[in-house]
UniProtKB/TrEMBL annotation:
Keywords: Ligase. One of its GO terms (molecular function) is ligase activity. InterPro entries: LigD_pol_dom, NHEJ_LigD. The lineage of its organism: Bacteria, Bacillati, Actinomycetota, Actinomycetes, Pseudonocardiales. Residues 32-286 form the DNA ligase D polymerase domain. This is ATP-dependent DNA ligase. It holds the Pfam family LigD_Prim-Pol. It comes from the Bacteria.
Length: 314
């Protein structure tokens, strides 16, 4: 079978050419590359808000999600002149990369044209890539952990956030866990944000010791518990953004949810087939995140009190 002819999508004031639009990317229901582009158009404001002005690593699947996966830090060749980049430095290797820096939905659709399925932004922005403005709470279940346990831990995290006066914005991971994002003042480096995240994780573990652990080495963890992964706040560690599709045959989506949905939420229900209707009805549930900025100072005080340290970043 020959390749399907390219189509051109009008994306606000720009035009993006989609080659091979009928190539099946997600075999569970047969969604194509064009279906993926149309999904991102349907949640345009939300995906742009999640990625705006952030260095962004791309997970590309040139043959669809059952084929090879490419982790792309540097902007792929052939970008139109309106696609912006931001330069980031990798101290471990003393190298740099010019990564995608989304400011327009057309940037996202062009990345889809380049076979991108998943978008993994930094938790800092182009204005100062060394000062995160987003604290990420990653509730990562072990291989034998039930999702009911993840739900319980999320509600404990909500309780601690409320006592701190911080507003958390939850979402499904698109896989087996849950994420909670908190907008923070960009006043500290990655090491301090990691330390604050570790202090928070220890408090959640203290309140839910039968459900949570913070043991760093995977081989030492209880596979039935939830790991509160503080290291997702390390420099150049990224997780799938809100509204990012995941590279699974079912085309699940990392989807913002309300706190009152957590007791019954089933992440498998959020896919590129279902999220557009939900988005049309509810809008972006993370729309207020930039208005809820919080300082991590109380968590740094907890870290000092408990004499917590995180490993040096290399």
């Amino acid at each position: 079978m020959g390749k399907s002819p390219a189509v051109e999508l009008e994306v606000e004031d720009r035009v993006v050419r989609i080659s091979n639009p009928d190539r099946v990317y997600f075999p569970a229901r047969g969604e194509t590359k064009l279906d993926l582009a149309n999904y991102y158009l349907s949640v345009g404001d939300g995906i742009v808000r999640a990625l705006r002005e952030r260095p962004c690593m791309l997970h590309r699947f040139p043959e669809g999600v059952t084929g090879e996966k490419v982790h792309q830090k540097r902007l792929p060749h052939g970008a139109p002149p309106w696609v912006r980049t931001v330069r980031v430095h990798f101290p471990r290797y003393n190298r740099h990369a010019d990564e995608l820096c989304v400011s327009h939905i057309a940037d996202v659709i062009w990345a889809v044209q380049m076979s991108t399925v998943e978008f993994h932004p930094w938790n800092s922005r182009a204005a100062d890539t060394e000062k995160p403005d987003e604290w990420r709470i990653d509730l990562d279940p072990g291989p034998e952990c039930s999702f009911e346990r993840v739900r319980r831990v999320a509600l404990v995290a909500q309780e601690v956030l409320a006592e701190l006066g911080a507003v958390g914005f939850p979402k499904t991971s698109g896989s087996k866990g849950l994420h909670i994002y908190v907008r923070i003042k960009p006043e500290h480096g990655f090491q301090d944000v990691r330390k604050a995240a570790l202090a928070f994780a220890h408090e959640v573990e203290r309140r839910a010791p039968d459900d949570v652990e913070t043991t760093w080495w995977r081989k030492d963890r209880d596979p039935a518990l939830v790991f509160v992964d503080y290291n997702q706040n390390a420099r150049d560690h990224t997780i799938a953004s809100a509204y990012s599709v995941r590279g699974f045959p079912e085309a699940t989506v990392s989807t913002p949810i309300r706190w009152d949905e957590i007791p019954d939420v089933d992440p498998r229900e959020f896919t590129i087939a279902t999220v557009p209707k939900r988005y049309a009805e509810l809008g972006d549930l993370h729309a207020g995140i930039d208005d809820a900025v919080w300082s991590i100072e109380p968590l740094l005080e907890w870290a000092a009190r408990d004499e917590l340290e995180v490993p040096d970043e290399q």
